[in-house]
Amino acid sequence: MPLLKTLEGLSFRLFGGIAPFFLKNIYEFKGTLERARIKIYPETYVSLMFLIALLTVPASVISVVCILVFGFMPLIFLIPLPFYVMVGFLLVPMSKASDRATALEREMPFASAYITVMASGGIAPYSSFKRLADVQLMPAMRGEAREIIKDVEIFGRDPLSALEQAARKNPLDVFRDFLSGYASTVIIGGDIGHFLERKAEEIFKTRALRVKAAAERMGMLLETFIIVMVMMSLCFYILFSVDSIYSTGVSAYSGIILYTYLFTPLLSIMFIYLAHSMQPKTPITEMRPYKVFGICAVIGVALLLVLTNFMGYVNIPGISSLQTVIDLPIAVAISLFVATAPAAIVHQRLAKKKASLESGMTSFLRDLTEVRKTGLSPEKCIESLARRDYGEFSKELQQISSQISWGIPLKKVVFDFLNRTRSWMTQIVMFLLVETIDVGGGTIPMIESLARFNNLTQQVEKEKKMTVRPYIFMPYLAAILLVATTTMMLGFTTATTNIVPGQTTQDVSGMTMVFITSVIFHSYLIGIVAGKISEESVSAGFKHAALLVVIAAIAAKLVPIFLTPDWGLAT
């Protein structure tokens, strides 16, 4: 920090005179910096940009000299380095503003539901923001709430002006409309409760449309990935097979090895990043499948080394005879399956439990609304509903009911439940419920509003899954297609070597082994990326990857038997 302050001061002394001209005639940074929440004066930011760009000029000059003297052309990309720096200074605030809007968009429906439910209990929106400032379940909204509170309690603005100021500086249009609409309703003396209710429902519907559009984009992204992975792989396989047949030496397979184990993983990471940037995210990440995968990956690598005699460098008694049955592609398939299958099982169990928990929560809220109409207190309603079947939520509900009957306060009981569960949706709903009871006594309209918002959320999730579900069969068809076409291509390519009379038949078993191993590894990557795109989690791809590895290995053995034709080229 002291170094940054020194650079800011030095840059402003050097370029403070031309910074206003840049801001006035070229690009206005003020609004972008405010939306990105970067606490710096625009003139200082522009001056710092010019200083950093000036410091990179010697690198550009050295690059030009090296190109002219030594002819090292790759350095040509370093010549416009100062321009890269300036572009970076332009893009960083935009990127931070986009990240801020994305994080806030995820929490905005629940925050609006919270403010609406609190308002139905007589709590003003500013007081709701003060309560949200301490809620760790919504970190993005907590940051926005703290900024509003700071404007009121430190800078002395009235709450209404602070809300309007927060709306103007926020990059998310839904948040701006919500706060500015509330301020306008207060000024004109409108029905605040009705406005908040309608606005919250509108935010949920807008969220539903965006999630549905994101699901459609995920389908297109999965199609693009399958096309790129299959078509590009086939093109490269043809080139590499021809090159391998007419080449000699160790470097004959270097191209396909680099393509398989360097380029395709990087391509898969790029698609995973694209999917992650377009998908709705939650603050909670379930790490248990990844921990199991890390442990099993070590076992898988050790198993691969044992099955291959440490890649042929060590002779292990008993393994040599086994290698007549288990060749390299099968050994790789077994190792990948062992590394992935346990993590896939863990993920499936956790995902099933999470889905049952959230579904049970939805049914519980509907029943709670009806039982509350009988006049029972919220605590008695929970105790009466504990005997019903709500799936995985029933176990938690029975524990909550037991603790309430022991005299433990409801808020403490529910917060203990929040610490036990890993479902962000369940945590949010239960938090809203306990806040509703704590603030307004859990009145029927408040619980009805909460149940309605939860139903809207569940409908959004169901529509998203239904939209993406048809695309999940594509990776399996792609893996079979990739194995079949690769095997047939190898048969055709090797058969062409026997066209010339008197030519010695080449031993292509090594090439076939390398290519089939590559196809199995490609199928594994297809499964990982397909899981991320279809179910929003890399761990969801473990089950697809494990199945695709088995399918690819079986297809690699069966396709040559049933589909490889007799090309009739041998004499």
Report on the structure:
- With 571 residues, the chain is an all-alpha fold.
- Among the domains are: 2-96; 99-206.
- The protein has helices at residues 2-15, 19-25, 30-36, 42-55, 57-70, 81-120, 125-132, 139-153, 159-168, 173-188, 192-245, 254-278, 288-307, 319-322, 328-372, 378-385, 392-405, 410-420, 424-440, 444-468, 474-495, 509-535, 541-562.
- Helix 10 packs antiparallel against helix 11 (192-245) and helix 21 packs antiparallel against helix 22.
- The longest helix has 54 residues, at 192-245.
- The N and C termini lie far apart (78 Å).
- Mean pLDDT is 80; it is low at 567-571.
Topology summary:
Elements: H1 2-15, H2 19-25, H3 30-36, H4 42-55, H5 57-70, H6 81-120, H7 125-132, H8 139-153, H9 159-168, H10 173-188, H11 192-245, H12 254-278, H13 288-307, H14 319-322, H15 328-372, H16 378-385, H17 392-405, H18 410-420, H19 424-440, H20 444-468, H21 474-495, H22 509-535, H23 541-562
Helix pairs in contact: 1-4, 2-4, 3-6, 4-6, 6-7, 6-11, 6-19, 6-20, 7-8, 8-9, 9-10, 10-11, 11-12, 11-20, 11-21, 11-22, 12-22, 13-15, 15-16, 15-20, 15-22, 15-23, 16-17, 17-18, 18-19, 19-20, 21-22, 21-23, 22-23
